[in-house]
Amino acid sequence: MTIKDTATNDNKPQKIGVVGAGSWGTALANLLAEKGCEVDLWAYEPEVKQDILEHRENRLFLPEIKLSGNIAPTNDLESVVRSNNILLIVVPSHTMRQIATRISEFISPDTIVITASKGIEDGTYLTMMGVICESIPCLNENHIVVLSGPSFAQEVAQKVPTAISVASKNIEIATRIQHIFATDYFRIYVNDDPIGLEIGGAVKNVIAIAAGFVDGMNLGLNTRAALIARGLAEIRRLGMKMGAKPHTFAGLSGVGDLILTCTGDLSRNYTVGKQLGQGMTIAAIQEKRLTIAEGVRNTKSVYNLAKKLDIELPIINEVYRALYENSTPANAIARLMTRQLGHETSELE
User: Fold this and answer.
1) Is the pLDDT reported for residue 338 higher than 90?
2) Burial of residue 1 (number of CB atoms within 10 Å: 0-12, 13-18, 19+)
3) Helix, strand or coil, per DSSP, at residue 192
4) Cα separation, 330 vs 325, whole angstroms
């Protein structure tokens, strides 16, 4: 089948399963449903399922957004997996292995799996695509698609113009998914570097915590711009070590997602960093939050991965110290500013 044929076929209504009814999973499910897709949405929480059935709203994770009648919420994971040959997984990164292992009991080897989760698994240092491959051994790696880019769930749900990327080792499958998701407010670009998209999506959450330090301490725009630029250098350095293509980090899933997450008040990671910069402790912050920001867990994963690969990631190191070694944002900034002087671009090679 050619790319053109695939795109044409996807003008027909699709049946898609979405695993994960958090804010991002719900926003994407609603986008697809409003395009005419029949969407089975698996929710872990019984109250989320009931809320959508009774009120057409996910008041726990995506309040004040009316959801399409084409969304069928359920707590039955098996039914969602067995009933759909396209599966979108949008679960927290630390639960991916558990959920993917359950999915493996019911999935067809021909299923196309899209991951919109961002993270690196602690201990194995696998990206979400890697976790899926390991947990669902019957699945062809070429049938896995990564969806990533600068996209707050709330704004997508409100139809704010947004552009993201989808990547797969099979460009025709990526193009198929591109056409399924694209709308007049949600633009999709195809990419052939899934590991690049995943590294960009996971590590930017850690850099966003550091950006929050800067704004929490009222250090100014110069400092934040420098932090973002040097943060991108660290993302690129790690990504290339993992086999990613360098140009990916100049795109939507690299610098685009980084800028959004480091500057937007809707970013949970940035908000956690800002509160730390204002003097709160991580324990106090997490007590008040329904869910833990992905960057908090991923800081440990990325820090340990960098040690394993023997690469220098100074900003990541300082965020780790602040979260796990009782350092302070002020000490982090001081250490970063007084590091040994060096050549800028040589570190990007």
Assistant:
1) yes
2) exposed
3) coil
4) 14
Rg (CA), the chain: 20
Domain boundary residue among 173, 192, 211? 192
Are 85 and 110 in contact by the 8 Å Cβ rule? The answer is yes
Sheet of 112-115: strands edge to edge? 71-74, 38-42, 15-19, 86-89, 112-115, 144-148, 162-167, 186-191
Q: List, in sequence order, every beta strand (DSSP E) within 140-216.
A: 144-148, 162-167, 186-191
Residue 282 CB contacts under 8 Å (≥ 6 apart), including other chains = 272, 276, 296, 322, 323
Same domain, residue pair 209 and 293:
yes
Q: What is the DSSP string of 274-333?
A: HHHHTT--HHHHHHT-SS--HHHHHHHHHHHHHHHHT---HHHHHHHHHHHS---HHHHH
Are 174 and 278 found together in one domain? no
Quick one: 169 and 233 in the same domain? no
Q: Which of 35, 49, 204, 274 is catalytic?
A: 204
At residue 337, what are phi and psi to the nearest 5 degrees? -75, -20
Query: Do 228 and 343 fall within a single domain?
Result: yes
- Mean pLDDT over 322-347 rounds to 91
Domain boundary among 162, 192, 222: 192
pLDDT tens digits for range 245-276: 999 999 999 999 999 999 989 999 999 999 99
Buried b (16+ CB within 10 A) or exposed e, 197-228: bbbbbbbbbbbbbbbbbbbbbebeeebbeebb
Return the DSSP state at 239: H
Which positions ≥6 away from 59 have C-beta within 8 Å?
A: 51
Q: What is the pLDDT of residues 101-140, one digit of tens each?
A: 999 999 999 999 999 999 999 999 999 999 999 999 999 9
pLDDT of 13 reads 67
Tell me whether residue 204 is one of the annotated catalytic residues. yes
User: How far is residue 228's CA from residue 234's CA, in Å, rounded to a whole number?
Assistant: 10
| 325: confidence class by pLDDT, cuts 50, 70, 90 | very high
- Is residue 348 very low, low, confident or very high in pLDDT (cuts 50, 70, 90)? low
